From TrEMBL:
GO biological process: inflammatory response; innate immune response; signal transduction
Keywords per UniProt: Glycoprotein, Immunity, Inflammatory response, Innate immunity, Leucine-rich repeat, Membrane, Receptor, Repeat, Signal, Transmembrane, Transmembrane helix
Family: Belongs to the Toll-like receptor family.
Bilayer disposition of the protein: Single-pass type I membrane protein
Protein localization: Membrane
Taxonomic lineage of the native organism: Eukaryota, Metazoa, Chordata, Craniata, Vertebrata
All copies of domain TIR, residue ranges: 801-942
The protein's name in its UniProt record: TIR domain-containing protein
Record's keyword annotation contains Cytoplasm: no
């Protein structure tokens, strides 16, 4: 495939070919058919170098799952019939859009308005009939627009209004009939340089109908229109350098009218192939470009060819002449008499059988001559008269032999093409004078022997093509004279014998292709490659290289090829399983690509790659390995692409410990992986593309994480993930894997977080409200709980009351207790009282002392004051006493108030208020005038047994004066 495009020829390739050129350099490595750049899953597309490739996918609409960051989108070869405004709204960064070869009949106005960065738009080969108002609105940065091979008859006046940056417009093969339509287009395109309106229905082309101003056009193609009149009356094309007219489909001759010969004075490339025009007009046309013409194409001319060649060769600036498809059988001696300045002559695709020996004698400056695809039976003698010739193309003729004088004295020749002939024999002397030859193409001939043709000749040859011949052996020193050779193609021969030293002298060789021959392991084990110290690529596909065991080789075949970067052993033929010796790759310290596809391997030794630490691409697909060890990959941490399709692997778990942190591309089709684990995916953190088509997935919760990852990951592109199918269980067989409901397989972390957060928030709110309004009730409940615990301890003790009463008081009220209470009750009445400062056991926990004192006394007397209510320990004492009161159903609690405390002040002490409502109490302030009665009532309270069933005594004092009953 040639990538050369001549500088003076416009690029007329369609969208598909354009993308092929973009991707060409991406596909150089063996089997790397796509190199991705971003990650996601799409139903019908794949990503390569930031270009979404959705071509030939039978799409009827523009897919909506294309990532918004892609720069290119190829939708060619689909079934899209309509473009809507919403189709490209999510793709604002597109710079190139391919919509060719669809069925588009309608495009909404402003359908492309969001693509402000779009530079190239291809709408070739659709079914558009008209271009409506504001069709290309928003495309102010568009540079190339291709809408050829549609059915366009009408163009709205504002259709091209927004295309202010457009430089190339290809509207060939449509149904435009009037030049005024072209005028509507051009009036909005101030920077248009390339206009191609070939193969329409234009019958006239007159400059005043086209424009009234000078255009920037440099390339104009008007060919294959039935133009009757071509009239240029003003200098509207001052920058035109490339003009193509002719190939008229009608029989009427074109009338040429150029008012001033300077109007086309800058045209350097003129193509008048197939032009039907009167000879005088043709002569006038050539005279108008007399001072600028460099390249002239007169293919398929029906008459006056020799005369036109004569006239054109009088143009002093013309250096290139193309005369294809002119049905020439003989080249006469006078045809090129005037072509003394010609440097390139193309006579390909004629029917030339003979050339007069002196036919090229005038062409002393000729550098390039093409005679390909003719009927020549030998190398024309006429070529010997071309001393400056650098390139000679004699391919696709009927040449059967080469003589020693065929290229005599051709010391300037640099490229020689002899492929696709019938050459069967080479003589040793045939290339003896080609001392500057750099490229020699001899492929597709009938060569069976080389006969030392390259042993002493061609010292500057860099590329030699000998593929598709019938060579069976390469003898010792066969290429010894080719010390500059870099590329050698020997593939598709019948080579079964490589003599030792057959590649000696090729110290600069970088690429050798030997695929599709009959080479065996015995041939390569002879050390035949030891001389190729600069070799970088070696291809052995389709040979008979087979080893039966892993035993190390005494002399590894590639031990001297330290510069080798690519080694291919694909498609090995022959029956039976094979092995590779564990030192097969010894010496290949710079190997980057190793291809061992389909060589019937049954295993790989764990030390296989210890000699190739730089390996980046490994293809071991189509073998029956069944299992791989993680140790196999330990020596190659730089691996970026791994191909393991059709290897009968049951698991990818070997990746878990393989240390492939740089792996970007994984193709593992048609194996037997039932489950893809989370650990496996996380073991290749750099993965951007994975192909797992045709595997036996289990559709249950074991693949739940994998399914979730396919849908949600934004790094790795899972090729064809939407078409993964279930193999197990039987009731789900052939169902789509991504349709599996995994809702019940895992806990919804987000929902749990929501519930947890809600609960914590509610708990905080409840705690806050409770603390603000019910904190004292909580304190009471806490002490009640402590009392409960104390009560459980006391139930195991005997009911033996050590004291008559436990006095619960605050330290601030101690003077009243020691000055009033103790003398009255203990000294005068003989009651045994328990006081904390006197009777608590030292070293014992306070709460235990309190509990023992309360339960060890018949009664508890609480001396209550404001300080008492504020005391933490006093609160605990009354809580324990209260709990005993409730628990034993006995009146064991006596309340004595030293101060008048209003009920409103007791409101925080909810338990105290309840006690006051259920019990009578003694009040010292109210008994100030009747202290005797106070102490009498207190003694009576101490004497009672405490049963609630006893007759109650009144703890009130009667004010005899006022006859009012009140608490004592």
């Amino acid at each position: 495939m040639s990538l050369a495009v001549k500088a003076d020829e416009p690029n007329l390739m369609g969208g598909k070919k354009h993308f092929q050129l973009i991707l060409f350099f991406c596909l150089l490595n063996i089997n790397i058919f796509i190199v991705p750049c971003t990650g996601f899953i799409m139903k019908n597309c794949k990503i390569s170098y930031n270009i979404a490739l959705c071509d030939n996918s039978k799409l009827s609409t523009v897919p909506q799952d294309i990532p918004s960051k892609v720069k290119g989108l190829d939708l060619s070869g689909n079934r899209i019939s309509k473009i809507q405004v919403s189709d490209f709204e999510a793709l604002p960064l597109l710079t190139q859009l391919e919509l060719n070869h669809n069925y588009i009949t309608h495009i909404d106005n402003s359908a492309f308005s969001t693509m402000i960065y779009l530079e190239k738009l291809n709408l070739n080969s659709n079914k558009l009939v008209e271009l409506g108002e504001d069709l290309f609105k928003g495309l102010s940065n568009l540079i190339e627009l291709r809408i050829s091979s549609n059915r366009i008859t009408t163009v709205a006046s504002t259709a091209f209004k927004s295309l202010t940056s457009l430089k190339l417009l290809d509207i060939t093969h449509n149904r435009l009939r009037h030049i005024t339509t072209v005028q509507l287009i051009l009036q909005h395109l101030p920077h248009l340089q390339n206009l191609f309106i070939r193969k329409n229905f234009l019958t006239t082309f007159q400059s005043w109908e086209l424009t009234n101003r000078s255009l920037e056009l440099s390339h104009l193609d008007l060919s294959q229109n039935p133009i009757v009149v071509l009239r240029i009356t003003a200098d509207v094309f001052p920058n035109l350098t490339w003009l193509k007219i002719g190939d008229s489909p009608g029989k009427q001759q074109m009338i040429l009218d150029v008012h001033n010969k300077t109007f086309l004075s800058r045209v350097s490339t003129l193509d008048i192939s197939g032009l039907q025009m009167a000879f005088d007009d043709m002569k006038t046309l050539l005279q108008t470009v007399n001072t600028s013409l460099r390249s002239l194409r007169m293919n398929s001319m029906k008459r006056n060819l020799t005369a036109l060649v004569y006239i054109s060769c009088t143009i002093p600036t013309m250096s290139t002449l193309q005369l294809r498809h002119n049905k020439l059988r003989t080249v006469s001696s006078d045809m090129f008499n005037m072509c003394i300045n010609l440097k390139e002559l193309d006579l390909a695709e004629n029917r030339i059988e003979s050339i007069r020996d002196d036919a090229f004698r005038p062409l002393q400056r000729l550098r390039i001559l093409s005679l390909s695809r003719n009927n020549l039976s030998s190398v024309p003698v006429a070529t010997r008269n071309l001393p400056a010739l650098e390139e000679l193309d004699l391919s696709t003729n009927n040449i059967s032999g080469l003589g020693c004088d065929d290229f005599a004295n051709r010391t300037m020749l640099r490229r020689l093409s002899l492929y696709n002939n019938s050459i069967s024999v080479l003589k040793e002397c045939v290339f003896k004078d080609l001392v500057r030859l750099q490229v020699l193409k001899l492929q597709t001939n009938c060569l069976s022997k080389l006969n030392d043709a390259f042993k002493n000749n061609l010292p500057n040859l860099r590329q030699l093509y000998l593929n598709r011949n019938k060579l069976t052996a390469i003898k010792n020193g066969e290429f010894k004279g080719l010390q500059s050779l870099q590329n050698l193609s020997l593939h598709e021969n019948q080579i079964n014998n490589l003599e030792k030293g057959c590649f000696s002298g090729l110290t600069n060789l970088t690429d050798i292709l030997l695929q599709k021959n009959s080479i065996t392991k015995d041939e390569i084990n002879r050390g035949v490659f030891n001389d190729l110290i600069s070799l970088r690529r070696l291809d052995f596909r389709d040979n008979y290289i087979k080893y039966q065991d892993k035993s190390p080789l005494e002399a590894p075949p590639f031990s001297q090829l330290s510069q080798l970067e690519t080694l291919a052993l694909l498609s090995q033929r022959g029956r039976g399983k094979s092995e590779l010796p564990n030192n097969f790759l010894q010496g290949l310290t710079n190997l980057l690509v190793f291809n061992a596809r389909d060589i019937q391997l049954k295993s790989l030794d764990k030390d296989m790659f210890k000699y190739t630490p730089q390996l980046q691409t490994l293809d071991i697909s189509s073998n029956e390995l069944q299992d791989l060890s993680s140790e196999l990959f330990s020596p190659i941490p730089n691996l970026k692409s791994l191909y393991i399709s059709r290897t009968k692997l049951h698991s990818l778990d070997f990746l878990n410990n393989a240390n492939l942190s740089q792996l970007e591309f994984l193709q593992a089709r048609e194996n037997q992986y039932p489950v893809i684990s989370e650990e496996t995916i996380k073991s290749v953190p750099a993965l951007v593309y994975v192909d797992l088509q045709g595997n036996s997935f289990i559709c249950d919760c074991s693949n739940a994480w994998f399914l979730q990852w396919i849908k949600s990951n934004n790094q790795t592109q899972v090729y064809d993930g939407f078409n993964f199918v279930c193999n197990h269980p039987p009731d789900l067989k052939d169902k789509k894997l991504l349709n599996l409901d995994i809702g019940s397989c895992s806990v919804d972390v987000q929902f749990i977080c929501f519930v947890s957060t809600t609960c914590v928030t509610l708990l905080f709110m409840v705690a806050s409200v409770t603390y603000h309004f019910l904190r004292w009730q909580l304190v009471y409940a806490y002490y009640l709980f402590l009392a409960l615990l104390a009560d459980k301890n006391q139930k195991n003790k005997k009911d033996n009351n050590q004291y008559d009463a436990f006095i619960s008081y605050n330290i601030h009220d101690e003077p009243w207790v020691t000055g009033e209470l103790l003398p009255r009750l203990e000294e005068e009445q003989g009651w045994r009282l328990c006081l904390h400062h006197r009777d608590f056991e030292p070293g014992k926990p306070i709460i235990d002392n309190i509990t023992d004192a309360i339960y060890g006394s018949r009664k508890t007397i609480c001396v209550i004051s404001r300080k008492y209510l504020e005391s933490e320990w006093c609160s605990r004492e009354i809580q324990v006493a209260s709990f005993r009161l409730f628990d034993e159903k006995k009146d064991v609690l006596i309340l004595v108030f030293l101060e008048e405390i209003p009920t409103c002040e007791l409101s925080p002490y909810y338990s105290m208020r309840k006690l006051l409502k259920r019990k009578t109490y003694l009040s010292w302030p109210r008994a100030s005038r009747h202290t005797g009665l106070f102490w009498e009532k207190l003694c009576q309270a101490l004497k009672t047994t405490g049963d609630f069933g006893e007759d109650r005594f009144c703890l009130t004092v009667v004010d005899r004066k006022n006859k009012i009953s009140q608490p004592v």
